[in-house]
Design a protein that fits this description.
mainly alpha
Length: about 575
């Protein structure tokens, strides 16, 4: 083994250097010891910064976070294993994340940090496993684990999701583990018992993915098996096609078995294909059921989708014969896209595509020849500069003028939290983003580090904005605490919206408020509970309310008011209006 090869092997830990032969690019063998250590630790440093920023500064904000916390909170109060929605049993919700949250509360006590730490731990497991999978696919490429982990932690969607109380993030390591087991079976020639163990491991991982994210993830092993056979150029003598296809079908069937048994114990086995299905459960802001939201996929894949180096590497690689590992990843990518679309969760469901895309990108960068002068981070850095410019302009242009333009373009009022954006985050993004875009490192690893840090920079700036300016808009504790006081006083509380538990955990409400979705339902509820209170959302000016509410506050992008039920005299009551 040459001196250059031995130096390049230092890019990865000793326990991962199990390949008999390691290939290295000449320009990568001259990495300094500091850059070698930095390339190994940078993905985990990025995650540490993001997790700390989210836990220290950002409150739970997304609707899906609040819904999950509300469900787990009521499960904890009632000591049940079945997810709850508005106090009612909801067996169609995948329970794995809820079980992990409730189990942690049983050990550490009720807190907000533990539910947010669960997806962070799942993200760390995913990053560790993606490096091992890269070695299985390309055992002769020492750099692929480094690039795979950098690419994964540098994807904008992954940087956001790793700190969100969201089930698809928890499903990621199991989806990747199922593919990892299939890759070891296809790339190697294991014996009979190791083959059986590999199939069972893939099935068990897929079953956990189903219990975390829904039934559609059971399709991944079968689709991968079909894709591997279609894309790989093997003969019948080398592989038993019938047995391989049958194995993929059996794995997918076994992956559905735990969910079916779980629903069977609750008497709802016929709901299997509603299990975690966003298409059959669209009445939530978190499901993002609008098909047009898929147009935002390029934003989700920022910054790599606009990185010239990666696109140039792909163009160069496709001119040559594509290897087996690359074909396996293409099959994995197709499987995750199909399963994500079938899940009905749109952008949230397509989060899993970051795993195969990171593996594919790692293979491309491991053999990409770099140019001595290439300001390759200009285009990805431009997005950070653009966001910083928006933050800067929000402190210059009057909010009233922006609201007029927003209404003309989108037909809706400007989200009120935009008026609370400060100047510090915008200036920091403008300065740091400009500096990063102008750097031109001499090594491919350092260049990848330069681009991978952009999502961490954006999310950290946003987290700082939450700490200084945006928290009053996204923290629902003031409104939820007032609802808790009313319930403690013996008053019934209802919410005039398609309510899914946004206030339950923030206020530690022991009784879920009753959702009333129409004006007629609200009037009937007010007549039946004349001493109760009803919560409404509205846009416009809080100074033009038709009556004096019991409480007025903000909830993300809208105003919220708590009214005594006595002011609602009928369906046409002005307090039920959505605009004042």
């Amino acid at each position: 083994m040459s001196l250059e090869t031995r130096q390049h092997e230092q890019l990865i830990p000793a326990e991962e250097r199990d390949a008999p032969r390691i290939e290295a690019l000449p320009e990568e063998t001259s990495l300094s010891p500091f850059l070698q250590r930095l390339s190994r630790t940078a993905p985990f440093l990025f995650m540490a910064v993001l997790i700390f920023g989210a836990l220290a500064w950002r409150p739970t904000t997304a609707p899906i976070e609040l819904e999950t916390l509300a469900s787990a909170w009521h499960m904890y109060l009632r000591d049940t294993l079945v997810p709850l929605r508005n106090g009612l049993l909801a067996p169609e919700i995948p329970p794995l994340l809820h079980w992990l949250i409730v189990g942690g509360w049983q050990v550490f006590g009720v807190s907000e940090w533990w539910p947010r730490l669960v997806p962070a731990l799942a993200a760390i497991a995913t990053v560790l496993l993606v490096g091992r999978t890269a070695l299985v696919l390309w055992p002769h490429r020492a750099a692929t684990p480094i690039f795979a982990r950098l690419l994964l932690t540098g994807v904008g969607a992954f940087a956001v999701a790793m700190t969100m109380v969201e089930p698809q993030t928890v499903a990621l390591p199991f989806i990747l583990a199922s593919f990892h087991a299939l890759s070891e079976l296809w790339m190697g020639k294991p014996g009979f018992f190791r083959t059986i163990a590999g199939w069972l491991l893939s099935a068990a991982a897929a079953a956990l993915a189903v219990m975390a994210g829904g039934w559609s993830w059971a399709l991944v092993p079968m689709l991968c098996a079909i894709g591997i056979w279609l894309l790989d150029d093997v003969t019948r003598q080398e592989r038993s096609i019938i047995l391989w296809m049958l194995g993929g079908l059996v794995i997918s069937t076994l992956a559905l078995l735990p969910a079916w048994l779980w629903l069977r114990t609750l008497g709802g086995e016929q709901m299997l294909f509603h299990f975690g299905n966003g298409w059959s459960d669209p009445a939530t802001e978190a499901s993002r059921s609008e098909p047009w939201s898929l147009l935002l996929l390029p934003v989700v894949l920022y910054p790599w989708i606009c990185w010239k180096t990666l696109s140039r590497a792909l163009s160069r690689h496709l001119r040559e014969k594509v290897g087996v590992g690359f074909r396996l990843c293409l099959a994995f990518l197709a499987a995750t896209v199909i399963a994500g679309v079938v899940s009905g969760w749109q952008l949230v469901g397509l989060l899993s595509v970051v795993c195969p895309l990171s593996l594919l990108g790692a293979r491309l960068l491991a053999t990409q020849e770099i140019k001595p002068k290439d300001f390759h981070a200009v285009v990805p850095g431009f997005f950070a500069l653009f966001i910083g410019l928006i933050f800067f302009l929000m402190n210059i242009v009057p909010t009233a003028h922006l609201d007029v333009v927003w209404r003309q373009v989108f037909g809706a009022p400007l989200p009120i939290w935009l008026g609370g954006i400060g100047l510090a985050a915008g200036l920091s993004l403008l300065v740091i983003g400009y500096i990063l875009a102008q750097l031109s490192p001499s090594h491919q690893v350092s260049r990848t580090l330069q681009v991978a840090i952009l999502p961490t920079l954006l999310m950290t700036s946003l987290n700082l904005e939450f700490d200084g300016n945006l928290r009053p808009f996204f923290d629902l504790t003031p409104v939820a605490s007032r609802m808790k006081q009313l319930q403690d006083a013996g008053l019934s509380v209802a919410v005039f919206s398609d309510y899914r538990g946004e206030f339950d955990f923030a206020g530690r409400l022991e009784i879920a408020p009753q959702p009333v979705r129409t004006r007629v339902e609200a009037a009937r509820w007010a007549a039946a509970h004349p001493a109760g209170a009803i919560v409404t959302y509205f846009d416009g000016s809080p100074l033009r309310l038709p009556a004096l509410p019991m409480f007025r506050g903000v909830a993300r992008d809208r105003w919220v008011a708590i009214w005594p039920a006595s002011v609602i005299e009928g369906p046409d009551s002005p307090v039920l209006n959505s605009q004042f």
